[in-house]
Amino acid sequence: MILSHACLPIPACPHTELSVTIIRHNSGILIYLIIENDRTADLFSYNFESMTFIKTETTGKDRNKLIRDILITIRDLNRESNFDQDSRDKVAFIGLNLYLIYKGIDESVLAWEKRNYWAKADKFRMEWQWTLNSAREIKRALIQDDVPAMMNQFGVIFTKFSQKTLPKSAKVSQSSQGSEKKLLGLKDLQ
């Protein structure tokens, strides 16, 4: 058992990736536990009846993870000597991540639009529009087995993310296996 700063016993789970946070309600009587697991979190009262859902990750953090995964995957692809099914999955993984970045843009600018910052929101959308175009080009190149077109898109990606640096030991956060089937199944990338 671990004792929190509020002196509530919390079972320790070293084999899982759970993060536990304790907060007090303004009245000082109600105590809540936020138990986080990967991208989701649950809020419990002290009697552990489930109350509501809280998203702990922001689209900005998600976007940074996706960008990191894209750059690591491109680095791994540059080290490969032949272009096999695993390489195709990695290319599709890059396309999927670009598409996910594009899909998260609307959620990112929602707060600006609520405050009537339309120009700022539109500028941000225009800055990230290229991700949808690159994802479409990668999908087209995969369908046509056009390796030079894929490499051209990697050049575009590297130019856009030139400020990002990665440690040599960095690894992708999720597997790229089966990504080609997912990417080719997306109807939004026509």
Describe it.
It is a single chain. The chain has helices at 59-79, 85-114, 118-143, 147-160, 179-185, and strands at residues 2-3, 9-10, 18-24, 31-37, 40-45, 50-54. The protein has 190 residues and is an alpha+beta fold. It has two domains: 2-54, no CATH class; 59-185. Strands 3-4-5-6 form a four-stranded antiparallel beta sheet, with no helix packed on it. Helix 2 (85-114) packs across helix 5. It is globular, with a radius of gyration of 21 Å.
User: How many domains in all?
Assistant: 2
Radius of gyration: 21 Å
- The amount of beta strand, in percent, is 15-25%
DSSP summary, beta strand count: 6
Largest sheet: 4 strands, antiparallel
Output the strand order for the largest sheet: 3-4-5-6
Overall 3D shape: globular
Low-confidence stretches: 1-16, 47-51
- Which secondary-structure class do the elements indicate? alpha+beta
Give the termini distance in whole angstroms.
Answer: 53 Å
Q: What order do the SSEs take from the amino end to the carboxyl end, as H and E?
A: EEEEEEHHHHH
Q: Into which percent range does the helicity of residues fall?
A: 40-55%
Averaged pLDDT: 78
Count of individual helical segments: 5
